[in-house]
Amino acid sequence: MEGYIWMVSAAGVPHRCPAIEDPKCASEVEWQALPCSSSSIRTLVATSSAAYAIDQHGKVLVLVLPSHVAIRQKVQLFANQRWYPLLRWMRPLPTDRGRFSDEAGETATNPSNFEVSPGWSWEEPWAVHRDSRRFDKEGWEYAFGFDGPKWANSCGRSHFVRRKLLKRHMRYTFTDQWVEMSDPTSSRLFVELSVCGLPGGENLLFALADDGIIYRRTGLKASRPEGDIWCALPKIQIKGFEVDDVTLIACSPVVPTLIATSWDGKLYYRTGISKSLPSGLTWLPMATPKDLPVTSIAIGTSALWCVTADGKVWMSRLETNNLKTEQHLGKIRLDSFQELSRGVCRLSLMASDQLLCVSNEDEKILIRSGISDNEPSGKSFERLVARTDQSDEKWMSVYAGACKLQTVPDYWTNAQTLQLKKEMIEFKKAEWRIQILDLLKTANERSWRAMKDVKAQVGVEDETNSEEIDVKRFRCQLRTATDAFKSASVVVTKDSVEINVEEKLTARIVHADILSALPSFSTFADEATRDNCHVALEDIIRAQLASSLRDRQGQCLWSTTANGVIQYHCLAELTSVQDGIENHVPIEKTKRLTVKGHFEKVEVGAQRCVWAVCKTGSVYALSSDFDPLDKEDGQSFGGKIVDEVILEIYEYQKWALFRGFVTFQSKTKGIGPWMDATTGFPVPRLYSSLRSRDWSWVDAHWNCEVEANPADEGWLYSNDIALFFDSDQGKVRRRKWTRRARFECRGPWVRVDAPPTGDVQVGKAGNFKSLFNTQHLIPNIKNRAFCLRVALTRDGHVLLRNGVCRRSPQGTSWSQIRTEDPMRCVAIGEADFLWAIGKDCRLMLLNLKNTDDFSRSEWEECSVQPQGLVQLLQTSRLAKIGLACPGDKVYLQVCDKLLRIDTEKGTVSEPYLLDNLRQVAADSRNRVWLLGELLTRVGDWFVAPYPDGLRTIIKIRKAERIPNRSMIRISAF
Asked: What is the span of the domain harbouring residue 190?
């Protein structure tokens, strides 16, 4: 979900509307009323996790939104004791720290008298924190004195004090309920609120009191939505004169910006607002449209809208810095504004600069249609379809700053669109239709196998090979070894693919030898030609697979390339069947197809349920109706895949005598003048062409990262082009250029509503029990086996997806698996065991089958906790790590290193270095797969023990690799 749009009716009742670009059912888009039982609401703002409102009495209220991840806080305090000779351990001396304190020694409340804030409740009683690396069996750690730098987990002769860490969790339980925000100054009344965005997704809350003073709420964060206290900002002073009576405030939902409007319609903005300086530096004046007084204002990412006292609506573009951390409001002039229309008020902008407002005429909510990067002012105002019980409802205000939609969905302005989509979805998910399709598919498979057997016995030639296939020719430009471009053509015939350079045959590839066709940057005359060429090559591979012999299990593999392209590997292809024994095609000769989409990671498990995660953290499930071997390319599916990446390229230069640093004329040690930072392939200089028509640029231009070396325009130096660039002098140098690009297309993927996710794991067995009864959501659910799906959010929370099966690959709901601390990585092992490594670098284990309530799950600490492993994880805290758990072995990936943990013998291997290791995974047969430069299946490991018996050395002994040869790359410069 891309956030909510919030509305306040004329009666003071707030409503919210889910911002869903492609809704799946009508219940998800209904406007939900959230009235406050004590009073009516006057104005409202929101973040992605909470809403803030001012009631009719001037009090600020907070409503925490329901989330897949519970808002929990850990409360910790130490119980301190001192040793008295000839006596025993007793309470500390009066000169020591208190009996209960925090780690710094500040006195804490007795645990029996500890009370929680309103809206919070305890989850469990106080417990002793146990960690064998730090505490003894009873939970104590010992030192010479309380201020000592070192604490030991066992008592020694020089230890005279000890402490025990007590912990307890509290949870916020008042979700979807309005709670008054605490304020020691109860007489203070507020009239306006505004939420300011910070980089990283954090927010600042500003409020305008009735005395004209602007306040900021301190301590505001997702885990503490009510914050701490109100802090006053300095009054506006311009040239020594103080500006009184501020009447309005406005903030950007993305960029840290605060604008204030005085009683006479003048505008002022606060400079220097940042995470480290949330209150900013000073106030400066800014221009208004033709110097007219302003009555309403809204600011987005690159647009500023306002309404003047004469009722006119104005818009101005904004300039921002490269990091999107500051808007240059001082550059706005009197003539920078564009006059648009009249008759609206209470403006609100999304992060994508889409505008919503309230009509003055009938008090309905309007949205500005046609807003884009090329046309930031849009085309016209259209009425938003109100999906409430009262069709004649009038509205007081609207807020869209928490909404992240890039475009306006059709069903927002067209009441008929949603009904048509709903009917189509109900038809596609009808049980009778699914059963008919399954029967047809089974009958078709049997008929195909029978026909193949008859042809093999009679010796009849395959009809598909004798069919005449039209010759297809695609014009392009190819880069030669000297980096020169030559005119070329790709000719697809019924038997082969020919590549002609300047009308001369350069290469000829037989259809049977084509294993894969990867889309990439192209040199074709136009994008349509490039895409058509790729489709033609994919059809050749698909036809080869359709006419080949395959095993009954339908073995397959899914992988992602370094630039996010999804590939389906058909491991089920057979060379022959003799005496009932199936002989598979060697893994290095397996064919693979490209699947529509762009993801960072893809996982497949039982019942062929495929899940994937994109760069933005969104989770997608593959539609159960999709089969890669079908010619259908996914365009007929209703799913929409959206992703955004930051493309990075390196510019290289070398030193030349009498000329200084110059650009390369050819490659040196495999490195050219411009190289892709992700794939390591050469690219053109600051190219503008993207891989396909599904891509578009977000940034207008390439941006040079000068922060690496501001004194020298971002250049870093080295004496060897193949070594690290980290010095300020050398014979070669490079710098990085970045540019954001957006991927958006229709495909066979269903969006799974989830918080920003870093990783997904899938179970290989399809017999996992569902936590909740979802009979009303999935027909015949009692007769179905569920697939285990676990997601790890970017902030370390572990979620379990319920109701995932073949008919419903996206599942029904999330359950949070309780963890003591955030997790760094998770993996599903054999027999539904869940392995994880926490932020404290401990290896943890949870048996999901023996857990009925995941909110109270108890993790077990694995007995294998060698110091070498802990040190490696601690030195790689910022590196991405991964787990794979085949059988009783755990394979841990840390950057390019791989470790093998034998949980049965209690040994851990030394790190095994692999080139460009990106992912380690295990299949249903407990075989290990490594994804790096090549895709490798490891059949066995050579294990040699160290003399200490606690460590081992591993080395790949039996490995099968999928090379990149026999693959046609659709190149594109």
From this structure: 4-67+176-416
